[in-house]
Structures are given as C-alpha cells and as structure tokens.
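The passage that follows is intended for readers who have already worked through the single-chain material. We present the inputs for a multi-component assembly, then the predicted structure in tokenized form, and finally a short commentary. You are encouraged to pause after the input and sketch how you expect the pieces to fit together before reading on.
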Amino acid sequence: MIDVMTNNLKHLISAFQAQGITDFVLSPGSRNTPLALLLAERQVRLTVAVDERSAAFCALGIAKRSHTPVALVATSGTATANYWPAIAEAQSFHVHLVVLTTDRPQELQSIGAPQTIPQRGMYTTNVKQSLEINVQDPEPDVTEFIDYQVQQLVHQSQLAPTGPVHLNLPFRKPLLPTLGTAWPQVHPQEFGHIVGRLDSNSLTRLVQRLHGRKLLFFLGPNDHYDASTLLDRLAQQLHAPIIADVLSSLRGNLSATPTPNLQEFPKELWPEVVLRFGGTPVNATLLPWLKQHGIPVIQIGANYLGKDHSRWAHTSYNLTAADFCRQLLKTTLHGNPAYRTQWHQALATKVSSTPTELNEATLPQLLATDATLQQLFLANSLTVRYFDQVFRPQTPVRVQGNRGANGIDGTISSATGMALNQVPTWLVTGDLAFFHDLNGLQLARTTHVNLTIIVVNNDGGGIFSLLPQATAPHFETLFGTPQHLNLAAAAELVGADYHLVTQLSDFQAHVRESWTGLRLLEIRTTRTQLPPRKDD
Amino acid sequence: MIDVMTNNLKHLISAFQAQGITDFVLSPGSRNTPLALLLAERQVRLTVAVDERSAAFCALGIAKRSHTPVALVATSGTATANYWPAIAEAQSFHVHLVVLTTDRPQELQSIGAPQTIPQRGMYTTNVKQSLEINVQDPEPDVTEFIDYQVQQLVHQSQLAPTGPVHLNLPFRKPLLPTLGTAWPQVHPQEFGHIVGRLDSNSLTRLVQRLHGRKLLFFLGPNDHYDASTLLDRLAQQLHAPIIADVLSSLRGNLSATPTPNLQEFPKELWPEVVLRFGGTPVNATLLPWLKQHGIPVIQIGANYLGKDHSRWAHTSYNLTAADFCRQLLKTTLHGNPAYRTQWHQALATKVSSTPTELNEATLPQLLATDATLQQLFLANSLTVRYFDQVFRPQTPVRVQGNRGANGIDGTISSATGMALNQVPTWLVTGDLAFFHDLNGLQLARTTHVNLTIIVVNNDGGGIFSLLPQATAPHFETLFGTPQHLNLAAAAELVGADYHLVTQLSDFQAHVRESWTGLRLLEIRTTRTQLPPRKDD
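Having made your guess, compare it with the prediction:
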C-alpha cells in the first residue's frame, strides 16, 4: 500500500518529467529524504552537491548550457538561503531554475523548532512564482492539483521573461517513502496538462487531433474578444457549434447559444473535443461535466494560461484567440461535418416561450427583446447566472460583470464606469449587492450617466437558500441578512427616478421609454421563488 | 521657475498619456493635491469620486468597457486600502488599472504620522508590478527614469496576463505645484520609450524608419540565441554589420566582431539606428555612447522588455529574435548598401597582432587560437571584460558567464554545471572569484567533469584599482583584499592537476594537451599592469 506522501511525490516528480526536466541537483539533508530516495529510485540525472550555494550555481550552469529547466532540492533551514545568490542571478539573466525547498510542517513553524526558518515565499520578487503544497494531504484532488499545477509552475519558468520559480514542500515525519511501488504514467508533452506556443509542429499535431471530430467552441467571459469574426469563421469551417457565456458579449453577434443542459442531450450529440476561450464560465456545471465524461478541453488565450480550476484542460495555448483562429483558418482542418447542424436541431426543440409574467427568472428574456439595449452590467451572484442561462439578445449587447473574484461589492460604481461613455446602460442587481455599493449611487449622480438600475429585491441573500446552510439555525440573521431597504428613499437621496414595477406591461413600458439620467426600477420577489440549483 | 516636483509630475502625466491613458479617476485629499491640480490643468478626462472603493470599481468599469488602462489617484492612508477589492477583481479578470497612491515622505514613515500606513508594495501579488518613485529628487536622471519607467509600468499592465500595476508616490510639503508652466513633449506611441508587438502596422512603420539607413546589429549576452542563422541573413539583407557580445556565443558563428572603440570611428561610419538583441552588454561604454550621440536603439526580445538601463531604447519588441527576423526577412527592407562593407574595411585596419607574451590581456587571443575549444566560462568582473574586448574564436565556442547580477560568487560551480555534459570546458577566473567559490572545486571533483581552470592571480581585487577608491586610505585592507592564496594546495585538496604557467610556450602546450579531469593553471600578474578603463 502506497502512502499519501510517496504517491504525491511520485506525481510531483512525474509532473517535472512531463515538463521536460531531466536534471536534478540535490543537497542531501534530513528533511528532503523522501525526495532524495524517490529521485534515486526514478533514476533521474542526479547531481549531488553538499554545499547548497555551490549546488544552485551548478544548476544555473546546467540550465544555461542546456536551455532546459533544472530542479534544485534542498533540506530545510539556512540551506535554502544559500540558494539565493544563484536565484538572483537566474532572475536577472532569465535562466529557468525550479527551486524545491523542503520544510517542517505547519505545527513546527515559528515556535523554535530546529532548522525552521520562514520559507514560504522567501525569495520574494527574485522568483517569478512561489507555491507551497502539502503533499501529505490525503484529499485526492491534491494529487490532481500536483499533476496540473506543478506542470504549470515549470512552464511559468519558461514563459518570457524566463526565470526561476519556487516550490516549498513541508514534510511531516516519518520521512521514509514507500520504495518499489508503481509510478504514475507521465503525460506526454502535448495533450498533457501543459501550456505552450502553437508552433508548426504543435499545429500539425493539433490538426491531427481535431480532424473529423465533433468539436464544440466555448467562449467564456472576456471584456474584449478581438476575434469575434474570426471565431465565427473558424467555427463554421470546423462545423463546430458555439456556446457563449453571457459575459462574452458575443451572444448577439455570433450563432452562439447559452450553455444548454448537456445532461439532457443524447450521447451522440456530446462533443469529442472542446475548444475553450476566455475566463472561468458563469455556468458552474459545464467544466465538471466535461471532466466527468472525459471530454478533452483545449484552452486558448494568453491571459488564461493555467487558469482552469477544473484541472482538466489538456493543452493551453499562449496566444490570442485571433492568432489561434488565423493559424487554424490557414489549414484544411474540419470537424465532423454533420455535428453543428445536429446540435442546432436539438436546441431548436428547446426554445423557451415568451414570458407572460415579470420575475427574476423572466427578466433576462424580457430585456433581451429590447432592440435598443446596448450596454448591460450584471451583478453577482444570482443575477448573472439567470442571465447566463437564458439571455439571448437579437442584436449585439455589451455585457459586463465583475466575474474575476465574483464579489458583490462595487457593482453600481463599475456600471457607472461602463456608462461614462454616455451610452444608456442597464444594471441588473439583487438588493444586497445594491446596498453594498450604495455610495455608488452618488457617483452615478455626480457623473450624470444614463443608468437604469433594476433591483430585484428579495430582501436578503438569495443564493444562501440554495446552499447547504439553508436549513441551518439562525439562517435569517447569519445568511439571509434582510436589510428592509427603502429603495424609494435611496432614489430620493440621489435625486433619481424611482418606480416599483409589478406588472409586465409597466416593465415593458419602462424598457421602451426614452430616458436620461439615473433611474431605479424595483421588482419585488421572494427568495423561496428561486428554482433549486447546485452551484458554487 | 518650475520646481522639481511639478516638473517630474508633468513628465509622469505625459508618460501616461504617451502610453494611451486618457481616463483618470481621482478621489480628492490633501496628499494628492499636486496630482489633482496638474491633472486638471492638463485637461485629461477626469472623474472625481469621493469614496475610494467606489472610485476603483468605477475605474474598473471604464477599463472593462474601453480596453484601455485607466489611472486611479488616491491620497495617503486608509484611502489606498479601499482600492484593494477592485484591484483584486482587476487582477482576477485581467483588467488593466494603473493605481497611483500618494504617500508621506520617508522621514514620516512608521513614526505615528497621521494618514500614514505602509503603502510601498501594499497590494502584494494582487498587482503585476509595484514601483515607488520619489518625484522630489532633483537628480535629472530621475526625470528621465520617469519618462522611461512609467511608460514601462503602464505597458506591463497590458502584457498578457493583463492586470493592475501600482505606483506609490511620496510627496513632501509644500504640496502646491507650480501651475501654468510648460509641459514636456509627449513621445509618440511608436518610437517613444514604449514596448509592444510587431503587428503589421508597426512593421510598416519600422520598415519606413529603417529603410536606406546605416543599420548596426548589437547581439548582447544570451545563453541561447534561437536565431543565429536568421540574424546573419537579416544582417546581410540590411547591409548591417554585427557587433556581438562575448556572452552571445556568436562570435565564431557569424561575421560578428567585438565592440570596437566607436569614438575612433569617423562620424560617417556611425550607425543611424541600432537593432539591439539580448541582455545588458559586458561593454560598459556602448550604450552611453549611443545615447550621447542621439543614435536611436530598437530593442528586440521578449525577455528584455523595458530592460535598458541607459533609458534610451526607443522601442522594444515583445517577440523572439527569430520571430523578429522572420517578419523582417519577408519585407524588402534594406539599409544603406555600402555601410557593412565600409564598416568591415575600417575594422580591418585595426586587427591586433599575435601575442608574444602571456598575461591577462593576451589570454583571450591565445585561447581563441585553440581550434578544439568548445566551452568556455568567464568569471566576473575583469576577466569577462578582457574577453569581451578581444576574444574572437575561429570556430563556434559556447561562452557563458553569470552576467545577470554580475556577482563573483559561484563561478566554479556554474562552470562545473556547464561541464556536466562531459565536453571539455575552460574556466577563466581571477583569484578572488576563484577563492569565493573554493567549495565548487569539490563539486567539480565529485562530478568528474573535464574542467581546466585558469586562475589569473593578481592577489586581490583588480577592479578596485580602476575605481575612484584606488587612492583611498586602507586600500589594500578594504578593497585590494589580497588572500595570498596557495593554489597548489587548493589543487592538492581536491586532487587536481596544478601548473604555475609563466612562459607563453608552456601555456600553448597546456592548451594543446589532451586531458581529462580537473586542472588548475595559475598565471601570476600584478594589479598595476591593468590598463585604465572607466567602468561600472
């Protein structure tokens, strides 16, 4: 039976090998015993150097000559500080070193344990990235995280500007690994969890990989797709249907749809490979579903290298969507010729009817019918999800939201920033996000933007009713947090128009109305109306 | 008369404008008074937002919509901490914000002054880069640094992964700027101090800029030029002579020469534009000379963006040397047709004669004649400069040195790392650098590398005799630091061959000798033999 530490360290060493590391320079000690023994068992090219300063400069010399990242392995304490001069040289001259420091576990930190100094992030800005992993954590996702993240770390050292990276590894005793057990399979360099350029060799391999398959485009959140026309042309050439996140702003431009419920699709309509652009989807089920069914995901975009929290992206390409499309459009690559048509036929059977009442769920469809809609800002956390599910405008609409860190703060202020270009702008928000940025109303007033704020007021945090604490004691006090907001008074405070909208026809009239300045439209709902969803 | 602060802040605002920033979001306060007044005078697009949290989210909204960096301006203290939520969102969603925080001066830090919190680097890894500039420093180079570095900072926010950057600005009272004075000229986006991609528009402008001119290539230190053939082809097409740093390893491959003494060249042989590749030159006079004579420098290489300590590079291109060459080779661009020939004719008159004695200055030429030489490592700090001046091998030689941070530490260990590929390797070092890494000898011994170490022993630090402290009291104790090394004993310690070489013929015999393992060749010199040079 293999222990957790041995298993995870074998994954770690294998991830290094998958990223092309062949040279390891080891300075023996007690704390790095498990790595020393496993590296020896793996028969890597191992250089032993007792003096860590010497070891680090030696690794530097190897890396300078071989142009391949070299890994350093130190025990804990002052040993690690001896690496610093060579790390500083590597950072200045752009040499890729991968610095592994082993450490005492958390319960021995800062309390006078021997050979224990603050090692986490110790090289500060002299390294490009610093990471700590507890390899003795028995959670299986940690193993998968090692497979993915350790490869990303090595790749980070190779991205311009190239330079050193640091991985701190706390080990708890006993330090002897289980020797003689099986090693995990090393992912191949292409279509492992690796990022890279799309050069002519990898382009050839990519074309071979995709040719004739059922290909699906997923366009994630991105404030500025520089390639909407190219994406459309490429999708057509590849016979690939397109799913667009509501925050891609591309639903009104392309033949793109919201994310359907793929579980309801017959298996013959499942994609064989997904090309993913943009950031983390608003839809929380798509990436886990793809992973669960083993459908490979290829990620494109320099901003998104290594940013796949499902730890499933098979390859990430370090180039813009436009450059990726241009390169593939030059090839004769095409996907399964029937797939796009079949996909759209399946979707056509699921078209939703025109709403007959006004509530949080129908709001996206009601706004989508407004042909004059140009700019829309969506608050977290339930609002943006409702819109992601069904909002499908007939004309291009610029849609934005603060969906990087997903906070409920600053929503009105960000929408005001969006509206400073004098284009009439709509903000849809819940009452808690509205309250959190009440001061933003004053900014909207003093900047004279044309902003309509729809507050879907369910008097508290709707998302919590969908989370496990929904049945917890003190729910209203701790999670519901009803604020009993007087929205009319808030509007009065900043001299804004205010309307409580209860009828569908009234809402439609407000949508059609030509207006300037600041408006508040309040739609009251109750939290229990919300449909159950499993979400983050 | 314009005061230092006003002048430097005008340069700062102009640098922002040169990099395309048009939107500023200001939260008024006392400490940021000078920026507030100057921004108003400059008539930038200024949004005033009292609540800093609101201000930062508003800037986020503007940047998300406009895809252009937006600048934030805060007063000191907790005001700056209110920016943090929006900065975190910007970092996660890849939005380019430029965060300006104003601060109390250094003499008011950490001693209980009001509205004073630790602001330098306060946003930690939530920003891509953090910088502090004292704009009240009267040194003229600081103004030039602002012109250059502020533009680099803004550009950094736009490089993938895009994100926020931070500039902390301590101001000392009085805080009122001199209004109504002249503004500095804003550099144009191209051929200002700016970095960028070489897209088809900028390629066209570059070709127009270079066509028919006297063009010179400078190939700086780089462990791995991926484009030596392409560089050679491009230089020929452009009729451009090539200067190669000794640490480019390209002197034996290309028609490249060491850096000549350009001061001795007639003015008609001066280049009109220099294309600079690789890192900071070993030669310390070239970049200042180009700047002094107003000769534009264009820098190429993703690793070297914004890395020009002469603050003179007019444009930096974010792509590899190979990609740059490929793009230019597709054009019909050529330089002044006669220039390359004239340059080489001028150089031909300066060919040095074959050395007749053995010393530090003749060593590079003597080693260059060794046709079997494959790998050479050069120590800091005088050794690498001598070699840079005259080393010109007849065949390709891989030449390396630790020339990022230029330390004298770890030299033997790095040379050992270089030699681990079993190729016979030469290390040339002074006695101080040799002593500093004495432990590296043991590493060379235990790894069984084939390494010849030439120690040019002048019993102390030769460089200091060339610096201003050469005539200072206690010179030998504080700077010369003679170690009276017994190199024979050092060799004995690690079982290495040792030879004290005094005769040219003996040295040549050692060079010709076939050998394995570790050798020490000691050449004794005196420090006063060194020619005077002005260097760092």
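Commentary: The radius of gyration of chain A is 27 Å. Residues 140-158 of chain A form the longest helix (19 residues). How closely did your sketch match?
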